[in-house]
Design a protein that fits this description.
Helices cover 0% and strands 11% of the residues. With 54 residues, the chain is largely without helices or strands. It has one domain. 6% of the residues are buried.
Amino acid sequence: MKNGKKPDPNVIHPIKGYDKEIYVKPTVKNPNIIVGDFTYICCRKSCKDSPETL
């Protein structure tokens, strides 16, 4: 953590300008699915257009 800043687990793309990594939790809409705050996935291609296909 630089400058004492913490990542926001409610943001899909935690690294500004880098769309190959996303946090999974903000993409899950089903309340029966439990996902950790900082669970992430890296895509070979951009995850920007379709995170719902994970």
